[in-house]
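Supplementary Methods, section 5.1.

A reviewer requested that the exact input to the structure prediction be made available. We therefore reproduce it here, unchanged from the version used in the analyses.
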Amino acid sequence: MPEMNEEMQSNTSDNQKEKEEHKDERIEKIGQITLNENKEKQNIHLLTIIGEIEGHDNLSGNAKTTKYEHILPQLAAIEDSSEIQGVLVLLNTMGGDVEAGLAIAEMLASLSKPTVSLVLGGSHSIGVPIAVSTDYSYIVPTGTMVIHPVRMNGMVIGVPQTFDYFKAIQDRITGFVCEHCKISKGAFEDLMMETGVLTKDVGTILVGEETVKYGIIDEVGGIAKAISKLHEMIGENEKQSTN
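The structure derived from this sequence is encoded token-by-token as follows.
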């Protein structure tokens, strides 16, 4: 019997070690993990949006990037999963590809499961729609959000159709943001076109509480508040599904 107990303990230890290695590998490769060791026994998928959001073009190998082709299938799998009960999104992004960022935001907004976002260092540019796409949003006191119009990079053909195209993109971003938070279209556009804040550029930088005052982010808070809120939302969701 003692030998059998030792063998069982060894197998348990090996399984635990393998589980931890798998978690570490997921964090290292895609910045994602399932949080499931809480007292509520709820499964929360942690999704990180960091660095620059990469679209159809590959960025420098030295740059920290979030690849949308990794995020979209994962979000589809989360929606299809019977085990994952909620999603926590951590953001520290400088923005990036507009189409890729909007795709991620639309996917998050369309999830049927409770979602909470937390802006850490910053959620700039196309990171703004992603931050507001969740059911509830937080920002740390020192977190920042930069709001500006769509920028034109590279060679631009100076014809009316080109500017109409960029205006259409801008309207998509504005419409999405205003639909998923409390700021009005006029106020958001005023922030985008501000000329006295960003040197040699138009736009506005908001810090912590300012984002809440404008109605972009729901509340100032950190990881404890974000996780607690998500547990609460999952509990409410489960009550509604049983009634």
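The radius of gyration is 21 Å. These observations are discussed further in the main text.
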